[in-house]
Every structure is written in structure tokens, then in C-alpha cells.
Amino acid sequence: MSFAHALSCANLEAVTRSGQYDALIIIGNRIDSLPQPFMDVLQQSSAVDSRIGQQCTLVVSESAPAQRLIFAPTGPLNRDYDDVRRVFSAAKAAIDVAKQAGSVKPALYVHGISELPGYEFASEVAFLGANQALWQPLEAREHHGQAISPIQEIGVVGADDTQIKNMNAIAAGQYAARDLCGTEPERMAPPRFADYCVELFAGTAVNVKVISDIATIDKDYPLLSTVARASYVVERHHPRVVKLEYVPQGDVERTLIFVGKGLVYDTGGADLKVGGFMAGMSRDKGGAASVAGFLKAVAEAQPKGVKVIAYLAVVRNSIGSDCFVPDEIITSREGVRVRIGNTDAEGRLAMGDLLSEAKDLAKNEVNPEIFTVATLTGHAARAVGPYSAYVENGPARAAKLSQQLVEHGDLWADCAEVSRSRREDYDFVKPRTLADDLLSSNNAPSAVTARGHQFPMAFLAIVSGLDKHGLDSDKPLPYVHMDIAGSGVEGGDWQHGKPTAPTVAALFAKYCR
Q1: Cα separation, 306 vs 345, whole angstroms
Q2: Catalytic option among 85, 141, 243, 273
Q3: Cβ neighbours of residue 420 under 8 Å, at least 6 residues apart?
Q4: Which of 86, 348, 359, 498 is catalytic?
Q5: What is the largest CA-CA distance in the chain?
Q6: Which listed residue, of 87, 201, 356, 505, carries a Cα 20 to 30 Å from 432's Cα?
Q7: C-alpha torsion sign, points 302, 289, 316, 372
Q8: In 10 A of CB 385, how many CB atoms?
Q9: In the prediction, which pLDDT does 129 show?
Q10: Are 150 and 269 within one domain?
């Protein structure tokens, strides 16, 4: 893992006197509140450079390591719509300037912000923002070598050992999630995705099991098998089910169970993506990537009391003579007869049987909470923009599970919106004939379908049997569906934008700190 690790710096004096750093990055919202002599040099420089205080700039300062002083202004922080992402963005800009200036070991100082409500973790967020900017694609690193990532350490002023441990754990998880999501479809075909996971967790407290036998997948996960069917003619595209498990030392107080969508490439299948909409679909594995990333953060932090289990559906939705088509009826692991409405609604199929297995497992776990994480619908991106969309069942809503995750995410620049599951969603997927029990989707793009990101949660609940574990059951199971189609990459650019590893920080903040 070549992300930039956080180091603890007691104070600014330690930075300037230690001799181990070669730049000082200051993130703040006002120059006139900064410590001297940094305030003085910035005010003097602003007389000849009006960019200072308005955008990220570097000035020469005798008081800064290697004379490099970088000031990254956040802009206003007190308006109704301001949040800690202003710090995240400032840090991204600042680390780019530091790298371009030749710095290889900068120190990062967030001034006068952590005391503000909603900004309590500003230093941690700044560090994570820097790592978001520094990440380079796995293929690029393998071609150019580690010289492509010269900054390997960042000093964080004022951070204690616990903060440093948490920062590095989240950064490790986000780095892995970006790799798994952002790598092209041959380099991260299902077998190689699984290999990356095996290597990622080698020597850690996370146990990895990979199911590769096609006969086993056909028998145990018939919906996933249906999606993968056209890929069987190409051995390197064969599907994998990756199972991850972390068991803490001591008593288990809570069990988190995840199912992640790992579509390493989504052609749309027989309902082929046309008009340029196929480009970027190598990132349709972002859900499984984020789940694996969260497990990596867990492996690094080794939290007490929390058991974490994850099932990753790693598959390619190929086209070919054996591809599945609309109107087919497939019987799921749960015994539900699913009529295919559109082959481009494949993610819910790939996860459905794994979610059924997760539900059965949850019945015997301590305080279980179940999650699906997926780049599932264009409607989520259309409805909530660059945010994750959380759709929850009754037990999760009663426990305010999604709201708590949103509140944690707001503090860690991992923002989301809560969506309600409604009766119309269940009506949408009900059968139209006695030949089947459940409709996978309509045959129109989700982005132009009313409640296009909410009704898939109803499908997942029914196909997995979770609908029998609602508020009205003897065994209610909290379940949250996390649609990260809008939040998964920077700027909504699925072909070229950097993956953002959504949900990793919010989940870690809620369950692992």
C-alpha cells in the first residue's frame, strides 16, 4: 500500500525545528488569524499577489520547512450550506501544489477550524483529502513505478496517536477501494479482483475465502450465475464470490454484514448500453470495492466489539450467444421466481442470493445490521447528485441507522442522503402473472423512472427474504441499501474521474472509532 501515511507532529514549532519536513501546508479561512510569522509573510505577499487568500498558493518563508509555505483557504465555513468538504477540497488543492513544488514530505496544519461545530475532525478530513488527490491508478503505478507517488508521508500537526491510527486505517481502506473500483476491466477481471483481495488481507485479522468453482456458483447463487452466464466462455472473466470476515478479540457486541456489487464490467448485457453509455462501466464494481476498503480499514484498526462479514459478488455482465435476456424467469436461492425486466439491472441480481445468505447468517449473529453497497442506479445520481443514497427498511429506520450514518459522514466528508422505502416500491416489483413472483425492473433507464433508486431496495428485500424480517416479524433485521452511483467518482465522470471510496469513512466513524 503506497498511500501517504500520517505522522504525528506535536505543534508548529516541532515542524519547523525537526528538519524532517520540506513544506508546511496551512489550511484556514482567514490569513489575519494565523500564527506569526506566517500571517506576516502572507499579508506581505498578498500586496503583490492577489491570489493569496483567494486560492491555494505557495510563498517563500524563512520560517517554513525548506522555505515552502502553502496556504490553502477554505472560504466561508459558517453559511447554511457549508460543510467540512471545504477543508477536504482545500487539502486536495494544497497537496497538488506541494507535489508540483517538489515536496516529498510536507506537514499539514489545520488552523482555527476544528473548534467549529461540524468541523471537529477537520485535521483528519484534510489528511484524507490529500490522499484522495495523491492517489494514482493501479495500472499507472505498475507502469511508472512508485516514483509516480513521491509523497509517502504527511505530518499532521496536533494529531495524537489515536487520531493518527484512525487516519491511516481509513486512508488504507480508501486507497484499496480506489484501486479495486478504478482499475480497468482486464487488470481487475473477477479472478484478479479476488487475487487483489487475498493479497490485501494477507497477514491481517481478516479471513478471506474465494469461491471460484462454476458448478458451486450455479447451484448456490443462481441469480449471480445468470448474470455471469455469457462470461463463462472466457476463463479469465469467470465470476468469483469473495467472502471476508473479521472477528474481534473479546466479546462481539455488534455484527455488520455487507454485500457488495462487484460488476467488473457492465456491458448492459442483451439490453446493451449504447450511445457512449458503456464507457466507465469498469467502475461498476465500486460497491464491492468500498466494502473491501472498509474491511481493510477494520483490519488496520482492529476495533473491539465489532464483527464484520462481507460477501462480494464479483462478476462480468458480458454479451454473447448465452447471455440472459428479458422475460427469462430465474428461481433464486430463496426460491423466488424472478422475471427479468432488463438485463442492465444486473447488480440487484448479482447481490440477491448473497443477500439471502447474509440474511440467514444474520439470524444467529449478535445485534446484526445488514448493508448492500452498490453503484446501482443512474436515478441515485440524478436524485441526490454527488451524494450516496441510503434506503432502509423498517427496523433500520426505527433504529435511526441511516440518519446516524449520515451525521457521521457529514463530519468526515463522506456525505449521503436518506431515502424512504415506500409501498409504491413494493408494488413496482410485484408479479404481473402467476408464472413469476417478482419483477427485477422495468425496461426503461432508472434515471427516468419514478423512484428509480428506491424500488430496487424493495426487490432486494423480497428476493433475499428480508421482507419477512421487518417491524412486523418476530426477528426484525435492520437493513440499509447504499446506492453510491452518484458519489462513487469525482465529478460524476465514470470513465476518468478518480474513485472516491464512499461509505468507508462514514462506516468507520460510526462503528470503529
Answers
A1: 33
A2: 273
A3: 391, 397, 454
A4: 348
A5: 80
A6: 356
A7: positive
A8: 13
A9: 98
A10: no
Show the domain range for 452.
184-511
How many domains is the chain built from?
2
Please tell me the predicted confidence (pLDDT) of residue 469: 98
Q: How remote is the C-alpha of 184 from its chain's centroid?
A: 17
Q: Where a domain ends, among 159, 194, 229?
A: 159
Say if 51 falls within a structural domain: yes
DSSP class of residue 470?
S
| Angstrom distances, CA of residue 285 to CA of 97, 183, 357, 429 | 31, 10, 20, 24
Phi first, then psi: what are they for 217, rounded to 5°?
A: -65, -40
Residue 422 burial (10 A CB sphere; 0-12, 13-18, 19+) = middle
- Tens-digit pLDDT profile for residues 20-48: 999 999 999 999 999 989 999 999 999 99
Which residues are 369's β-sheet partners? 256
Cis previous bond, 37, omega within 30: yes
| pLDDT range class, residue 445, cuts 50, 70, 90 | confident
The yes-or-no answer on residue 240 being catalytic is: no
The reply to whether 165 belongs to the active site is no
Amino acid at site 266: D
DSSP string, 150-174: ---EEEEET--HHHHHHHHHHHHHH
Mean pLDDT of 98-105: 97
Q: Which residues contact 46 (CB under 8 A, 6 or more apart)?
A: 31, 52, 53
Q: What is the pLDDT of residue 241?
A: 98
* Any domain includes 168: no
Q: Is residue 164 part of a domain?
A: no
Confidence at residue 1, expressed as pLDDT on a 0 to 100 scale: 55
Pairing of strands 206-211, 68-73: unpaired
- Distance between the two ends of the chain, CA-based, in angstroms? 22
User: What would the pLDDT profile of 268-316 be if each residue is shown by its tens digit?
Assistant: 999 999 999 999 999 999 999 999 999 999 999 999 999 999 999 999 9
CA–CA separation, 437 and 226 (whole Å): 17
* CATH code for the domain in which residue 297 is found: 3.40.630.10
* Residue of 25, 19, 28, 12 whose CA lies nearest to 87: 28
**Which DSSP letter does residue 78 get?**
-
**C-alpha cell recorded at residue 65:** 520547512
In a domain, 408, yes or no: yes
148: cell is 509516480
How far apart CA 474 and CA 470 sit, in angstroms, is 9
- State yes or no: pLDDT of 16 exceeds 90: no
Rounded-to-integer distance, Cα 234 and Cα 349, Å? 21
Q: Give yes or no for a contact between 110 and 94, defined as CB atoms under 8 angstroms apart.
A: no
- What is the per-residue pLDDT for 132? 98
Q: How far is Cα 43 from Cα 91, in angstroms, rounded to an integer? A: 21
Computed over every residue of the chain, the mean pLDDT equals: 97
Q: Are residues 24 and 112 in the same domain?
A: yes
Q: What is the pLDDT of residue 147?
A: 81
Per-position DSSP letters for 4-50, written without gaps between them: PEEEEE--HHHHHHHS--SEEEEEES-GGGSPTTHHHHHHHHHTT-T
